[in-house]
Amino acid sequence: IFKFLGAISVDLGKDRIKPYLLTILTPLYRELNSNYAEQDPTLKNLSQEIIELLKKLVGLEAFSLAFSSVQKQANQKRAMRKKQRALQTVANPDIAARRKLKRHKNKAETRKRKIESLRPLHKAKRHRSHALKDLAMVE
Fold first, then answer.
1. Residue 133: inside a domain, yes or no?
2. Most CB atoms within 10 A, among 13, 47, 81, 110?
3. Residue 96 is part of which domain span?
């Protein structure tokens, strides 16, 4: 898709690309600022190249205005999601508690994996699933 966006940008030219600049920059900015673990470095490099191409094509001033607008939108969305999450914590404490327990469980599992990778002979204790025990009727 990024290659397609770059090709369309070059094909449209300087004057006709300006109305679509925000639409093109949004996924590129998202890819540049993402920090998830399984990120593909070639994708990040490609988005950087297309941003440089757009900068040369449109001009620095128009590009800077559009890029700052995209940044502003992304920050507003991030703040809105954070606010919604905080409101949900107050409105639905049971859902928030479940989310917190899940996060702590994942953190413990990550810690155990890290210990195993650092010390291969040491086996960290794993939490056993008691699914069958939970299903049995205990008096």
1. no
2. 47
3. 1-119
Does this model's pTM top 0.70? My answer is no
pLDDT at 132 over 70: no
Contact present, 30 and 4 (Cβ < 8 Å): no
Query: Could you please report the per-residue DSSP string of 27-56?
Result: HHHHHHH---TT--HHHHHHHHHHHHHHHH
Tokens of 74: 């992304």
Contact yes or no for 29/67 (Cβ under 8 A):
yes
Q: Judge contact between 14 and 57, C-beta under 8 A.
A: yes
Which amino acid belongs to residue 91?
Answer: A
Contact status, residue 9 vs residue 58, Cβ threshold 8 Å: no
**Confidence bin at 70 (pLDDT 50/70/90):** very high
What is the C-alpha end-to-end distance of the chain, expressed in Å? 60
From the CA atom positions of the chain, what is the Rg in Å?
24
40 occurs within a structural domain: yes
- Cβ neighbours of residue 20 closer than 8 Å, sequence gap 6 or more: 8, 12
